[in-house]
Each structure stands twice: as C-alpha cells, then as structure tokens.
Amino acid sequence: MQVMFAKWVVPVATACGAAMLVGVPGAVGKSRADADCDPGAISTGFGSNVSVLRCYGDWAYASTGASGDSTMLFQLHSYGWRHYTGFPSSVCRDQATADGVPAAELRSFPNCVSAPVIP
Question: Mean pLDDT throughout 28-55?
Fold first, then answer.
C-alpha cells in the first residue's frame, strides 16, 4: 500500500511488514531504522560495523572503532546509506555546505582557499 502526498509517494509497509516513513519529505523507500541512523543499516551498506556517534536524520557521523582515522560521515539516499567522506577529509567546507552537511559537522572540513590568480 502507498500513501500519496502532494509531490511524492511513500510506501506504508514493505513486503515483510516493516514500517516505512509516512509524511516525511524525501523518505521514499527509507525505513524507520534508516531515519534513526541505525548502525546496522549503515553497516550493511558500508560493509563494516560502525557505531553512530551523532545522528542528523539523513546524515550520520560514525566510527568503525579502529585506531587511527576511523570516523566518517554517511548520507541517507533513497537506496540506503552512502559513505560521504572519512576524516580528515579532502572535501572542502564550501562543498560540504553545498552538499547539505549538517552545520554542526562543518568544522570538521578544511576551509579551502584558492590561491589568487596572478595575470
């Protein structure tokens, strides 16, 4: 069964009966576990176990718990969780902002400044 909203359709239940989000823009195909930054859902897509340290709905700051650089940011898409970047990141703060990274995480991105062009 599907529920029609103004501009999108959101499944109410999956074939196995799992609850799906209803009335949440951009939630097509996303389960409640996905929206809650469920570590299992993120780990499945990533291929390694992760612990979610901070959740922002469609964004999750997580860690594999390994020593060294083991923190990363994931973004939820209609097909599931996608690894956005690891930290330290080569993604510039301006690009992260444009991509919709939560404001609280922007401090983790380098403030890339282009060198002036000298004619």
Answer: 80
